[in-house]
Amino acid sequence: MRRDRGFTIFLIAQTLSVAGDMFTAVAIPLLALKATGSVLQMGLLTGLSGVASVVTGLFAGVVADRLDRRTVLIVCDVARAVLYGLIPIVWLFAPQVWLLYVIVPLGACFGMTFQVTYVTVVPALVEPDRITEANGRLSASYAVAGVAGPMLAGVVAGAFGPSVAIGVDAASFAVSALGLCLVRPRPRGDRGPAPATGALSGFLDGVRFLWRHPVLRSLTVLLSFFIFVTLGLTDITIYHLKEDLGQTDAAVGTVLAVASAGTIAASALVGRARRRFGFGPCWIGAQCLAGIAVITLGVTRHVTIVAAMMTAFLFATAIAGICSMSLRQEVTPDHLLGRVTSAFWTVHYALGPVGAAVLTAAAEGYGASAVYLVAGAGCLLVAVAAAFTPVRQRWAPEAA
């Protein structure tokens, strides 16, 4: 795959884009806190970004299927470069907090559109039997960017101020856009006519395809429950390390950084694992590993074991996630891929925020250990349920 120039450029552009997202995730809250001194302002901006992403998910698939996908990616990167580039320029004269309430949701809209569209481009950059490997490479780059991005953002923000860190973010999007100009996705044979539907109708097109495909239907239901019981685990782990184990902020950061190695390892192994064992065994096995890791978190008080189990959990979720994404790309007609991706993400993440709120509230009331045990049991329940659905198949059907 290193000889595939188009995919290599795309991989670099994606890594820069993700690193930019990480800069934003750190620098925007720091900037809001520095300007207002209010934690509430930080929370409002985060919530506003989340709402904008969910709403955008309803129509991002139609955009990806209706327009030229490479152009959509470039426009999203250019738009974010301009939007985030405005912040350091304005801050040179005086802080304007209201500007953040305009730029953050708009940036989230372009970010979600980018995420949906990039999924539809990958199959046009590699051979069909390399889709899983390509997604693994992309996932590994995200893991590296997810570790390096916040660290670099903190260093830059500490040395030069949060507004400068956001300026670096803007520059990363500009470089990513230039890189995407060099990518030439090849046309796929199943590319049908562009959808003439509106946002809601296009979203329902994706939902209908998911429902009619036996494996994707089961995955959507199972993952909705899985996300509900696991989305808040990072917050609970931070709480567990700080409150139960008395660890420092530096120790918390080290544990989470070490755990990211699980995602990197999964990204390197998932292609070969799926070719050898097939989709069903990989996906179900990953859910079992995730459940065992989370239950172990509930019965240990050693920081080293916490780090190891978080690494195992992220390894498992990366294996399952990459397999799931690759399957959607393989079995979905190209002209529907944007709408199906948008529908899949929106539906199975819809319960995530509720689950995160429930789990964190339960951890405060009953302790992190009890929540870990319940969440781990939920992961194992997903694995058992999957064994009685079409997900268990080694090779999924090509069409609904």
Automatic annotation (TrEMBL):
Instruction: Cite the entry's keywords alphabetically.
Output: Cell membrane, Membrane, Transmembrane, Transmembrane helix
Task: Classify the protein's membrane topology as the record does.
Answer: Multi-pass membrane protein
Record's keyword annotation contains Membrane = yes
Residues crossing the lipid bilayer are 7-32, 44-64, 71-93, 99-126, 138-158, 164-183, 218-238, 250-270, 277-299, 305-323, 343-363, 369-388
The record ties this protein, via InterPro entries, to: MFS, MFS_dom, MFS_trans_sf
Q: Does this UniProt record's set of keywords contain Oxidoreductase?
A: no
| The Major facilitator superfamily (MFS) profile domain, residue ranges | 1-394
Against PROSITE patterns, the record matches this protein to:
MFS
Q: Where in the cell is it found?
A: Cell membrane
Q: Could you tell me what this protein is called?
A: MFS transporter
Q: What is the native source organism of this protein?
A: Microtetraspora fusca
* Phylogenetic placement of the source organism: Bacteria, Bacillati, Actinomycetota, Actinomycetes, Streptosporangiales
